Structure formats: structure tokens, C-alpha cells
Amino acid sequence: MRVISTWTTISFLLFFGTLDAQTGIRFGVDQIQAKPISVLVTETQEVIDAPHNGFSLGLDYWFRLTEKRIEFFPEVNFTYSIFDLPDGQSLDGQWYSLFFNTHIYVFDLASDCNCPTFSKQSNLLPRGFFVSLSPGVTYGIFSSDSDQISAFERDHSDWIISIAGGLGLDIGISDLITITPFAQARYLLPFEGPLGQQPQNDQVPPAFQLQTQKDSGIRFRGGLRLGFRFDYR
Q1: Fewer beta carbons below 10 Å: N end or C end of the chain?
Q2: Backbone phi, psi, residue 152, to 5°
Q3: Across the chain, where does the E strand assignment appear?
């Protein structure tokens, strides 16, 4: 649990330590597809790889290059995902992440850093549109209460390295507040799901098993960032 407490500490420091700067809150809806968190039906050997659905909450801090409009938003993020198992129970995922979001304003690279604000809403698309890149590291915790899964398989955690790309648009609501709808696809480098290896001492095989292979995955996220300019004068 040390990872969780560290993540919580970083979150508080990031938010309360930036009240005199620019910071943001990110809300997201996720769909996660990955073989390490899919299910194998024991009797038929059928793999059920329906996506996990989830939601996310993140806190970020803003800084930028001085001469080009390339802006950086290091973020702490928590995602909760759920996958319905065949017995009516679920496989839950808790994803504690650090992301280094980079926004590249491809149509406005030479501009100042006050865009967009309420007083500068003209040319919204060229000033507010960006492409994003976001490497990240995640500590994933996967668990289930299902009696149909071997006890050996019910809890597992692993570190996951990822890289994401996406698009977004900054919309100035006032000189202090910006909202940013965004869409993102994140590639998860190969990781180990809740099993890791098959238990050897089960006398009766469970009705279904979690996958054994270490494999990659992808996460799609649609979301909204609410940005605050506490440094605006």
C-alpha cells in the first residue's frame, strides 16, 4: 500500500502547491482492452476479452517552453475499471498513474502563453487546438470476489509503462478558467494480469480463469480538463 500513500501525497502536493500557478482537474471515461485482464472459460477454452469500462480523475500542473507554444502538464491520475465476469461478479482494476502530458499547439506555435482566455476567444480553433503526447507509468491493482476464480488468481498487481497520443481543444470560459475536451488512445506495454501463472494445486478447476500471458493492451479515454489560472493578473 506504500505506492497508494505515495500517490496520494504527490496529489496533495501537486494541487495545494500550485495555488499560485496554473493547475487543472481532469475527468475521463475509459475503455480498456488488454489480454492480461481477459477471461478464459475453462470448459470451452473460449476467451472473453470484452473491454473494461472505467472512469478517471487526475490533477495536473502547467509549465511551457519560453519561445514555442509547447506546454507540459505532469499529472497524477487514478482510474477505476470494472469487468463483469460470467458468474455475475466482477474483476476490478485500480490504476495509479503518473503521466507527463505534452500539448503541442500546431497552429499557434509562436504565440504567447495567455491563450485561450475569455478576452482572446477569437480564432478559437488555431489558438486552442493541440495534439498531445503522454508517456506514463502506472501501478495496477486487480482483484475479484468471485468464487469461480481460484483464490490464487483473485489479487494481483503490476507496474505498467505506457505511451499515449491524442487531440484536444482549449476553450476559454473566463480569464481564469479554461475547459478542454480531449480524446486519447494509450498503448500499454506488456504487463502481467491477475494470474501470472496457473495454480498447480486446484483439485477442481474453476469455471473460468484469468489469462496467464504477459501481453500489451490499449486504453481509450474521452475526457474534460478544467484549468485554473491562479497566476493570472
Answers
A1: C
A2: -65, -25
A3: 22-34, 39-41, 47-48, 52-61, 63-64, 70-84, 90-104, 129-144, 155-169, 171-172, 177-191, 208-210, 215-229
pLDDT tens for 37-83 read 777 666 666 777 767 899 999 999 988 888 888 999 999 999 999 88
Q: Number of C-alpha atoms within 13 angstroms, CB side, residue 163? A: 3
pTM above 0.70, yes or no: yes
Mean pLDDT, residues 1-10: 53
Could you list the residue range(s) of the whole structural domain that residue 197 is in? 2-229
By DSSP bridging, strand 129-144 and strand 39-41 are: unpaired
**Pairwise CA distance, residues 76 & 55, whole Å:** 14
Q: What is the CATH number of the domain that holds 117?
A: 2.40.160.20
β-strand partners of 164? 134, 186
* Residue 90 burial class via C-beta count within 10 angstroms: exposed 0-12, middle 13-18, buried 19 and up: middle
pLDDT tens profile 165-223: 999 999 988 878 899 999 999 999 988 765 444 444 454 456 666 655 678 889 999 99
* Number of domains present in the structure of the chain: 1
